[in-house]
Amino acid sequence: MLSFKDEDRRDTLHSDQPLVSVVIPAFNASTYIERTLRSAVRQTYAALEIIVVNDGSTDYTAKLVEQIAMSDSRIRLLSTPNRGVAAARNTGIEASSGRFVAFLDADDLWHPTKIQKQVNALNRLSSHWAAVYTLHYIINEDDEIIRPGSSDVARGYIYARHLNVKYIGNGSALLVRRNAALAIGGFDSSYAAAGMGGCEDLDFELKLAARYFLEVVPERLVGYRKHPGSMSSDHLRMGKSALEVVRRSLAANPQLPRYAIGTAIDATRKYAFWECRQARRIYLSLVTLRPILRSDPRFVVRLVLQKVLRGIQHCLRLGTTTANREDQPRMKMKFDDQIPPSCLECPKETPRSRRRLMRLAAVDAKLNSTLAARAKGA
């Protein structure tokens, strides 16, 4: 078992540092929970309480957490019946004492400086700024980096843009003011009850973005794990969940102009299409594709070109020399305590996507003015 040492420098009684409550929902997470907790307790930010919510696990998750908690007093375990990730996070929020709450899925990892940088970013802003997110790497079962996640970022009032771009990307990237999390009602557990769990974090983010400003630390400080047992590997459910989340968000915000509604639906349908493709559900892929073609007829052309390009790249790889094929494979970089925080790369943009974001930014500016006027008159 990994070693955890409760050192004086990690004492949470720091009067000059606001307490951060780390909420870790865990269901049958014994494979990864030690590594996840290690990344939490090794944060350079000292004032933490770490709440693991054991969501009805049937493996050794609870036992492992109890053993680790014996060597670090900041960790405590709460056990509940299995009710899903949203209910588990809500249990953690309700039990928390911190000014800020940070969410960490039980199979993900944090860079040691993540919380420090997020608290520094949010502390200097007014209460209108409810949360701060970071970028991420996608990692495998062995903590190796597979590829970087999206490089898209935006800050301020970003509701219309977030509906389209979905900047935050995963549930382990967000640190939020506790009072804001409570004000929007926490996480919605009705998705899991309806068999559409998977995008509850997106639902939470959109509710925050509709009412508050969001800040960003543009560095890859999260290791977002993809493995066969993870929720995100259930592609069909993720696609259905995203469509339902966006549908509910649009219904709750009828003030959005038609253009923003249309682009949000189109972007989410494209996401659902890719998820159905990865799930090898051909019929559902075609059903999802039909409305996309009405709004973006060039989508199929791009699909075909992309497939042709991948075929050419595959042929080029096959055509490498025998000597190259016999070279030792390159070691993958691990997402661990030693990895340097990465800076932001420029996201790939087309003239069309740039125009779309400019129009959506104008929508956000107008929505923000309306919210400010309402707040002033209240």
From TrEMBL:
What sequence ranges are listed for the domain Glycosyltransferase 2-like?
A: 21-127
The record lists the membrane-crossing segments as none
Q: Which UniProt keywords apply?
A: Transferase
Q: Output the Gene3D superfamilies linked to this UniProt entry.
A: Spore Coat Polysaccharide Biosynthesis Protein SpsA, Chain A (3.90.550.10)
- Gene Ontology molecular function: any one: transferase activity
UniProt-listed SUPFAM superfamilies: Nucleotide-diphospho-sugar transferases (SSF53448)
Specify the superkingdom.
Answer: Bacteria
Q: What is this protein called?
A: Glycosyltransferase involved in cell wall biosynthesis
Q: Which organism is it from?
A: Rhizobium leguminosarum
